[in-house]
């Protein structure tokens, strides 16, 4: 069975993280992933602190395994959530959309493992210096906010730049992606899109159906003009936003157009008004499954891929 230093560091069975997807990764999904042997992560997103506290309590009521919280540092509630994860004794914090340095001392004193999501070598070096426990190297194949580098290119460069454990993310949905990540130097993976198909994922049925029926060219990136590119399914909303983005709409109106769009997709499944975040690997998601089954399937498949690869050498 595949194990790595990440398992010992975090007290998890398999080196598999569930991505912190805003308004999607709630306490129920996080608990199911953690109970299945991975690390379930509650997404704080732009939600108020008390929402995050409630989701932590839900997860705690469903599992006694370690859980994480992802903090989106651009959120107006980031300071509140940073304090709440300390009060609730969350085992792991992952961060995105910013530099978590100002919180590091308090989190480390509370015994929290801090694992920032990064998209560049410079950020990897900085997070190593300020005391991160590990790093999530996320390539542009991922859903949501994306960087410029692909997972294939980013992960080995991050591994060369730090002595911390590295978790690969972006475009990983099956055992082949897990095996490839290990070959690139990572010691674990983070999957987001694959867990959209989990039975415990409470997104609108139309959202889940779109993921399961997705094709290879199903996603597109919008938001580059504002400096915050986002990958999502190629829905009518995404097409309309792209036209507005390059059609001269003022920046403030363009930002307003996207406000609340993810929540609409998650809760209402409205393709006209909702932004359906998805990674490029959506076409590899074939069916709805329990989270624990997803984890077991990708790990067992990765073992077979790595075993086959080992036979190619003398």
Keywords:
314 residues, eight-stranded parallel β-sheet, 11 strands, 42% helix
Description:
This protein has helices at residues 5-10, 27-35, 49-62, 78-87, 101-109, 121-129, 151-161, 175-183, 205-212, 236-245, 251-258, 261-268, 291-310; strands at residues 16-18, 40-43, 67-72, 92-96, 113-118, 135-138, 144-145, 166-169, 188-191, 219-222, 230-233. Helices cover 42% and strands 15% of the residues. The protein is α/β, with parallel strands linked by helices and 314 residues long. Strand 5, helix 6 (121-129) and strand 6 (135-138) form a beta-alpha-beta unit. The strands form two sheets. An eight-stranded parallel sheet has the order 1-9-8-6-5-4-3-2. Strands 7-11-10 form a three-stranded antiparallel sheet, with helices on one face. It starts with a helix and ends with a helix. Helix 2 (27-35) runs parallel beside helix 3 (49-62) and helix 8 crosses helix 13.
Chain-wise SSE layout:
Elements: H1 5-10, E1 16-18, H2 27-35, E2 40-43, H3 49-62, E3 67-72, H4 78-87, E4 92-96, H5 101-109, E5 113-118, H6 121-129, E6 135-138, E7 144-145, H7 151-161, E8 166-169, H8 175-183, E9 188-191, H9 205-212, E10 219-222, E11 230-233, H10 236-245, H11 251-258, H12 261-268, H13 291-310
Parallel strand pairs: 1-9, 2-3, 3-4, 4-5, 5-6, 6-8, 8-9
Antiparallel strand pairs: 7-11, 10-11
Helix pairs in contact: 2-3, 3-4, 8-13
